[in-house]
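Q: Joint fold for the lines below.
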Amino acid sequence: MSTAPHTSKDFAQELRTLREKLATMGSRAEEQITLAMKALGERDDEMARTVIKNDTMIDRDENEIDELALQILATRQPVASDLRFITMSLKFVVDVERIGDLATGIAKRALELNRLPPLESRVDLQRLASLAQKNLHAALDAFVKKDADAATAVIGCDVEIDKLNASLFAELIAHVATDPATVTRVLPLTSVCRYLERIGDHVKNLAEEVVYMVRATDVRHRPIPTPAN
Amino acid sequence: MLVLVIEDEVDLATTVEYNLRADGFQVRLAHSGRQGLASATADPLPDVIVLDLMLPDLSGTEICRRLRDQERTKDIPVIMCTAKGEEIDRVVGFEVGADDYVVKPFSVRELVLRIRALLRRANRIEGEPSLIRFGRLKIDRDAHRAWVDDAEIGLTALEFRLLHAFVSRRGRVQTRDALLSDVWGIEADVTTRTVDTHVKRLREKLGDAGMYIETLRGVGYRFKDQPDEASA
Amino acid sequence: MIQRVRSRLLLLAIVLAAGAGLIVGFAERQHVALGEKGEIAMIALAVFVIVLVSGLVTLQLARRSVRDLADQTRNVVRDTSRRVPLLDATRGDEVRELGEWVNFLAEDADRSHTALARERVLLSSVAEGLTQGVIAVDGDHKIELLNDAARKMLGVSSTPVGEPLIEFVRVPAVFELVDGNEAATVEVQLPNGPRTLIRVANRWGGDGRVLLLEDVTTVRRLETVRRDFVANVSHELRTPVAVIRANAETLLAGAKDDPVMGPKLIDGLHRNAERLARILADLLDLSRLDAGQYRMDLSKVEVKAITEQSLTAVEPQATARGVTIDVQIPEGVMVKADPKALDQIFVNLIDNAVKYTKAKGHVWVQAHADDTHVRIDVRDDGPGIAEKHRGRVFERFYRADPSRSREAGGTGLGLSIVKHLAESMGGAVGVEPNTPNGSIFWLKLPRSM
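A: Joint structure:
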């Protein structure tokens, strides 16, 4: 049983702290993607190394959030929407942490690529990155504002990311086909492409988690309605 | 012995060439990064490379890295001409791979001496090891190595130069500015605080021998005149 | 009021006593044998009635006055116009005192209220007037205040007061600051916003915190510019000094007796000393221009004349390289300019054109006038300037092609001086590509009628 001295004010504060930590962790992940892509685009080793170093902060965030969520579950025994929020937090945190890892992966590929001469033709990975970043930002916005509609919109956008990823990947492969000597440079880029697409997937998960948190409807594993065009 | 000088400032290159030839070296010149790389891999291979950091087409660090990446050139000693004192630590050492440095404007004589030292280090020929012993400290000036109680300590080129500056002027007070210009060259963009940082680092690395370096508040530093001298 | 009650009661008692007396007297007249006991009973009855009636009357009177007071007070409370109520303080002592006291309290409350409202308006004006962003949050991290500047920096469009801070700001550093206990400062790059210095002050009202946001983008940019400039200057100066030092050292070591190398080294000394002097002179010019110490003597100047005058400085170079200079400026075109400055600009631009065009190339100097301005173009047919460099050629020490410009003896400062001079005269400069190849450096100056 929960001990008497804990007031509902304390409980509200714990929930608030949990929400804040999740949002700031997400913000960190956003920043990591930005820096990693910049390190890649500007061939900046130092920036790439900073991204790799910062990953420990995201891991630390994950641990703190897990601890707090479990503590709340144990001591407050929340129900209904609070319970949904806490359980979804545990999933949320995993997706954000994976995004952080993927950003670190991009930074590592950047370091690899910086040791080689730059690739002449510009394969527009930045556009894929912008899409993923925009979606992540929107998902986090939806989270803090508890806006299920906005979250649903984010889920819908993932299709675009998948499509762009497929076309960029094809472009990269074609590049190697026409100029086999560039394979050492193209391979890391295909990895980056893949990472960005996976970031997109995790962002979709985040959006689904938000919808569940707000509406208690599980939209995972459901087909996305195609827009009537 | 063949020296390759990669320097885009033609005047400077020819003057250095003249001095090296006068000292008995053979010289090849290159005035751009690409030219330099091509020349470094051409036969006969140079025995030592003098490389300017600021080249118009490729940066000196990039060139050094490429030299280190290639089988043919990875063992050729490289001495960098840097213009910025703050880069020294980064440039010389594991990151970029240069073996020694001079700061522009440098003394040509100093450059020649360092080239000789590098060659001695690389080939271990001619001349006795130039060892300096001081109490628990042992320094090999040419090899740029130092030992405390016969255990070798790892010093960067800059730290070694700092230590050498101390030891060679032991007993005398050196102001931070004097150390700055000795070790970092005539510098504008490195502050005296950098000196403090590096002295601290050097002391840490010297361990017990670190107490040989004395701080004189408001004045500077001094390396003890005698190893068993009582502290001031 | 009590006075009144008392006098009425007395009157009533007298009347009742008189009444009782009358009844007893009447009974006696009628020879009703009441006997002693009957008389006592009669008097007792009379007293009982007197007490009862007087008690009831008192109660009624008291209730009425209290009700009056309550009504008045209720009216005061209900009076939304918040004007100082006029409790009728003219009736009786005690009630009057109470009434006065209530009046006093009401006035005081009103004064406080006005003062508070005024303070709030003052605070709001101050906050909205600041260029810094201000955010005040309470102990639950709900926003109490978010001024306009903060709104812009954070990209907030709605009214956030009362909402949780996390809905508008997600920067981790901000929350670390807010959760901490001391005043602290952190510098962050706001997403979609400027580079900002965020300072959190000490706690207010127990739990609340105030955040101040300062946009430091410009400051940092200027710092970078300054640092780059210093680095560039020291580098530019270092190179000729390196040659001078090396050459002098070599000569002293014995090369002065070398018939071939000796003169070469001395020539190198001379050339680099000159180069150093030129760089220093340019730097001095720039610093004077920066400080506004270069006084422009504006007068009516004929473009053609100045152009031809400036050619004398450029001719030797042009002839040596076989470059032809074609001046196609009509006579009589006048501008408002400082003749010396204009000469310096032309020398610089034409000299550049000659230097950077190929050997045996062509340079044209043309002028077009409209109602207000004259535009002078210096065209060359050399390799031109790549687009990525075009925006930056007027920057100090900016070299589009470092090796060539150094060979040509350039200081890297010429164009920035040209820009400064032109702007000091109320004009402008720029560069465009020439077709099919080469560059057009243009200068625009106000016409002089």
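Q: Anything notable?
A: The helical segments of chain A are 8-42, 45-76, 80-114, 125-145, 148-178, 183-215. Chain A touches chain C at residues 12-13, 16, 19-20, 23-28, 30-31, 137, 140, 144-145 (CB under 8 Å).
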